[in-house]
Each structure stands twice: as C-alpha cells, then as structure tokens.
Amino acid sequence: MSLEFLLFLLFVTLGSLPASQAPSASVVAPPPSPPTVSTLPPKVRHFLVKDYFVFIIVLDGLRPDALQRAQTPHLDRLWQSGLYSWSAQTVMPSLTLPAIASLLSGVPPERHRIDWNYWAPELGRIAVPTIFEIAQSEKIPTAAFVSKRKLEHLFSPETPLFILNGDARQLVTAATEYIAERRPRLVFLHLSDVDDAGHRYGWMTVKQLQAVERVDEAIGLLVQRLEDLKILNDSVIIVTADHGGHGRIHGTDDPRDMTIPWILWTPDIEIGRELTQSIHIYDTAATVLAALGLVIPSGWVGVPVLEAFPGVMIHQERP
C-alpha cells in the first residue's frame, strides 16, 4: 500500500470525525454559540511538522465559566474550530509565577523551585530549561510580552522580553508590531486584565466579565493581524490561564482556583472538539516543543497534546 494512499485514508478518517458533544453538566463550559462567519481563513492540512509560528496566550485569572457568561466571539471561534478543555488543571500554589513557570518548563513547582509570586531580583531566574531556552538553542527566534514584571524571573537575558503596563489591546498592539518586523516563531503573551479585575471587583462579577470581553477583543486584533501578515495559516495558537479565582483571591486548591481553560487552534484541525486526554498546565510546554519539531526533555512531567498533531512523530529525549 503506497504512502500516498495511507495519507489519503488518514485524511478521510480525520475529516469525518464528529463534532464534540457539549460538556456534561458537571464541567463548566461555554455552550455552543450560534453559527457565525469566522474571520479565520480556510484551513490547510499538513502531515509533517512544518515551520509553525507558535503563540502562547495566557489570560491571567480566567476561569472556564467566564467564557460562558461573557461575550467572547473571537475566543469562541478558536475553540469551535480547535481543540479545547474546560477542566484543565493548574499547579499548587495556584499563583501566577509558579503556574507560568510550570507552563514554560514542563515540570511542577517542586521541580522548577519557583514558589514565590512577586518580583525579587535577588532570587534569580528559573533554574531549569524552558521552552524558550530550548528554542533559542536551536536558533528559533522568540519574543515575550508580559504585563507583570515578576515574570522576568522566567526568562533568560537572551530572550527579547517586553514588560508593558498597559491593557490587553496595548500589549497586543506592541506585540503585533514586533511580530511584523521580526517574525519570531515562538511568542508568549501574558494579559493581566482579567486577574486585575478579579482582585479589585471579585471573580465572575460584571466588572471582571467586562475585562474578559476586552481581552477577547484584543485576541481578535491579534488573529486579524496574523492573517494580514499571512502567517495565521502557519500558526499554532494556544490560549490558557495560569489560575482561576474566587471571591477576590486565588492560590488555594479550591476547584475555582485550580481549573483553567485550555484551547489550541491550528490550521490542521478540521472541526472543534473537546480533548480526550486530561490536561495540566505543564503539558503546554511539551505541546509547544512538538509543534516546533523539537526534542522533549526526558525528565519532563508534561506530555504533548498528540491530538493536535495526528500522524506526526514526537521527538522524546532518551533518559
């Protein structure tokens, strides 16, 4: 049987997968939205790893049920034509710095040793390899745009790191200008609007949901700009959160703090569907390396979301 015929069979099989059913009542999830005209371009299927642009978007403090309550048409279009989980889990403590350290390093806090949540230059930088250091070692250009200085603990001095105090639209505007000029293949964006509103007004309040909607508008701006630059169809977009929250706090093992959304969009996914594997925040790191065609360190706890790259061989470092 020829390779071309096998690929054809795989194409037919994947293309005929049914749409995911709505999550059970025990899982907080956005209901399916009415059909809309998506701004996303027609999708192109690729069977081999290509030179993807990978965008990681962390919406600080976003709970999955906020996507049910707020009007988020741009995020809806991503998950409705991508892979998603409304029951992904962050790490303990459910705080920004330890959580994003796990997202970038593929290991839990007891391994990366980032257990504080504030800017303290005397404590130094993360001591385990991150996806940025691994990508840079393979000459892959990177960039990070964050809205909290404490995240500087997680990036080496070699990483183009931009710390911006503005809102989501301002940060995305700065990022897209840089992307247009430099074309980095691995980009990290951290938007703090939702977390800021949660601490000030409370989680799931009207004010916080309005912040969710503003962040959604910024994501729409990013997607449109990537399409204008003609790189959207060569992109992997991952949208997630570092933690949730309740009242005006987070950091506990309360499910409202621990449960986060996880969305992955690529041009290779034919239809939106809920992920069958359980997702932890440190799985993001392994998934990014898989998208870039890089070797996943053997000591990582995180595993790649293989459903995003059917038929692609994942490179795992031998112990």
Description:
With 319 residues, this protein is an alpha/beta fold. It has one domain (51-308): Alkaline Phosphatase, subunit A. The protein contains eleven helices and eight strands. It has helices spanning 3-15, 66-69, 73-80, 96-105, 109-112, 131-137, 168-182, 193-201, 206-228, 255-258, 283-292; strands spanning 53-59, 83-89, 142-146, 161-163, 186-191, 235-240, 259-265, 273-274. The protein has an eight-stranded mixed sheet with strand order 4-3-5-1-6-7-2-8, sandwiched between helices. Helix 7 (168-182) packs parallel to helix 9 (206-228) and helix 8 packs antiparallel against helix 9 (206-228). The longest helix has 23 residues, at 206-228. Mean pLDDT is 87; it is low at 1-29, 31-39 and 42-48.
The CATH class assignment is Alpha Beta
Class per helix and strand makeup: alpha/beta
In CATH, the topology is named Alkaline Phosphatase, subunit A
Strand count: 8
Mean pLDDT, rounded to whole units? 87
Spans where pLDDT lies below 50 across 5 or more residues: 1-29, 31-39, 42-48
Radius of gyration: 18 Å
The percentage helix is 25-40%
Gross CATH architecture: 3-Layer(aba) Sandwich
N-to-C span: 35 Å
Short description:
The protein has 319 residues and is an alpha/beta fold. The protein has 11 helices and 8 strands. The protein has helices at 3-15, 66-69, 73-80, 96-105, 109-112, 131-137, 168-182, 193-201, 206-228, 255-258, 283-292, and strands at residues 53-59, 83-89, 142-146, 161-163, 186-191, 235-240, 259-265, 273-274.
